[in-house]
């Protein structure tokens, strides 16, 4: 989904009708619709679980997911799909949210699983994963960004609204990459459980951040960041 001019072999353009032909070919490659990306952080989960299957949502986490689902439903938007991380806490959050959005298809992916996207700058003392984790997780999370965060396909006629339920590290990295900020600064942002981050991708490829980690729809006593 690159800039249209980058998709055309300029050497092959007809010299006699070059400009006119180029304009016509560019229009063929130009996106027409806007994509709205809603990045949802999973709700609070059981931190004591040793394996992923044991890291289920807490009772409060289930409440948070209900509140997030109600908030998304209240927007009056016809969502196209929900893509979620295959990790237990994201899957459970998705199931609760989807109850408030009947008929919206759900798709699970390993690309959005939590991980260490890139070594943060400045570094932090309380979180220092092994260097190999940055290489393994970073490549996967970057692949998720390239696969999901792009301008609309040229065949897309109407604006789309998609929900991605995943994890704080993944969302923060995606926001930095989408806004063309240094990705090493991803850890400077903080996201609440069940929060909503809204990115808009215009047909020309420009990206705007409408909300970052919004939980204003939750009562203060329901807000957590674990």
From TrEMBL:
GO-annotated cellular components: mitochondrial outer membrane
Protein name in UniProt: Serine/threonine-protein phosphatase PGAM5, mitochondrial
E.C. no: 3.1.3.16
MF terms (GO), sorted A to Z: protein serine/threonine phosphatase activity
Gene name of this polypeptide: Pgam5
InterPro entries: His_Pase_superF_clade-1, His_PPase_superfam, Mito_Ser/Thr_phosphatase
GO biological process terms on file: positive regulation of mitochondrial fission; programmed cell death
Location(s), subcellular: Mitochondrion outer membrane
Catalysed reaction, written as an equation: O-phospho-L-seryl-[protein] + H2O = L-seryl-[protein] + phosphate; O-phospho-L-threonyl-[protein] + H2O = L-threonyl-[protein] + phosphate
Entry keyword set: Hydrolase, Membrane, Mitochondrion, Mitochondrion outer membrane, Necrosis
Keyword hit for Membrane: yes
Pfam families, alphabetized: His_Phos_1
Family: Belongs to the phosphoglycerate mutase family. BPG-dependent PGAM subfamily.
């Amino acid at each position: 989904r690159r800039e249209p001019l980058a998709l055309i072999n300029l050497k092959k353009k007809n010299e006699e009708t070059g400009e006119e032909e180029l304009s016509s070919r560019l229009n063929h490659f130009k996106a027409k619709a806007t994509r709205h990306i809603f990045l949802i952080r999973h709700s609070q989960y059981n931190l004591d679980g040793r394996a992923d299957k044991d890291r289920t949502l807490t009772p409060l986490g289930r409440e948070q997911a209900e509140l997030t689902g109600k908030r998304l439903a209240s927007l009056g938007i016809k969502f196209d799909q929900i893509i979620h991380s295959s990790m237990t806490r994201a899957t459970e959050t998705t199931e609760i949210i989807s109850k408030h959005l009947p008929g919206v298809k759900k798709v699970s992916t390993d690309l959005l699983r939590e991980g260490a996207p890139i070594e943060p700058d400045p570094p932090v003392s309380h979180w220092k994963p092994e260097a190999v984790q940055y290489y393994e997780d970073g490549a996967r999370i970057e692949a998720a960004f390239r696969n999901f965060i792009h301008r609309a396909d040229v065949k897309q006629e109407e604006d789309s609204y998609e929900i991605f339920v995943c994890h704080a590290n993944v969302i923060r990295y995606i926001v930095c990459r989408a806004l063309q900020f240094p990705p090493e600064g991803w850890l400077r942002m903080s996201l609440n459980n069940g929060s909503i981050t809204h990115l808009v991708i215009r047909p020309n490829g420009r990206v705007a951040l409408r909300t970052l980690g919004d939980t204003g729809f939750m009562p203060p006593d329901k807000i957590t960041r674990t």
